[in-house]
Amino acid sequence: METADLFNGKGRPDAFVFMNESNRFYFTRFESSFGAVIVSRDERVFITDFRYETEARQCAADFDIVISSFSEFYSKIAATLEKLGAKTVGYEESMSVGEFREFKDALKAFKLKPADAVIEAKRAIKTEEEIGFIKRAQSIAEAALKKAISSAKPGMTERELMAEINYNMAIGGADKYSFETITAFGANSAQPHHHPSDIKLERDDLILVDMGAKYRGYCSDMTRTFCIGDPGEKLAKVYEIVKNAQEYAIQNIKAGMTCNDADALAREFITANGYGDNFGHSFGHGVGIDIHEFPRVGSGADIVLQPNMVITAEPGIYVPELGGVRIEDMLVVKQDGVEDITSYDKKLII
Prior knowledge:
- By secondary structure, the chain is of the alpha+beta class.
- The chain has 9 helices and 19 strands.
- The chain is elongated.
């Protein structure tokens, strides 16, 4: 992954240290539970332990590989920075208190600068290769859902449907799941992050599925709401409001718009139809190596959308004790609009 642009801008540090697992993967392209990526204007160094030495030399061939024990880890970081001639060092604020204490003690000879905003902004703009991985992850997820939902029937439990979806993603080529698959039946669909249970599907229940596959390290994210039978007039109307709100937003989002304004497209539509108080989460979020990445596409978010950001469009209405509807697509932001990379249909009745 290109690193030169990390140093574009006033007051940038001489070097960056990235210890977050996702950030390490972003640069090295392989998963590891231990290590640090150090980059300067001219050098790239990856510090890890003996368990990953062979793979690191294969996958991160453009990095100098330094092998460290756990006890020497922070001193090896300091020694590497000294060798690179760094005076100021960018670091991640996401470290635990204990990690930061050790990090700060080992790097007391350097001036430390928080760098989360720099790496977030870089990761938010996807390359064509990254977008390709996300599209493949999405196609795996869609095929898995299509197969699983065709076998859904009254008497099936939420856990069983979840297991069917996960199995289909695994055999369909997913490296893993983006997150714990959500399957919610009936009134449980009013809980946006419901944990699947042994509740059995009854005819006329809503079925809410929120799922994603991971391929080559990149996530997909999709939600669909279904019903076997008749959901009733109120929930059918709610479904149409959510669907129309999402479609209106997708038609109007483009680069140069703030995340707040993108959120408002759907939120104002839902509010105008009487359900503003039932839409309690953001319209969307960035997706990439992590399922929730920068930017947050929600109320009050003044971040400007840029070309090749990948975001979700997931308005929802949740009516306690009755049910909830959420429909979620993934969008690639373009200069004059968006590319919707979710092709799964939006039919309520199955």
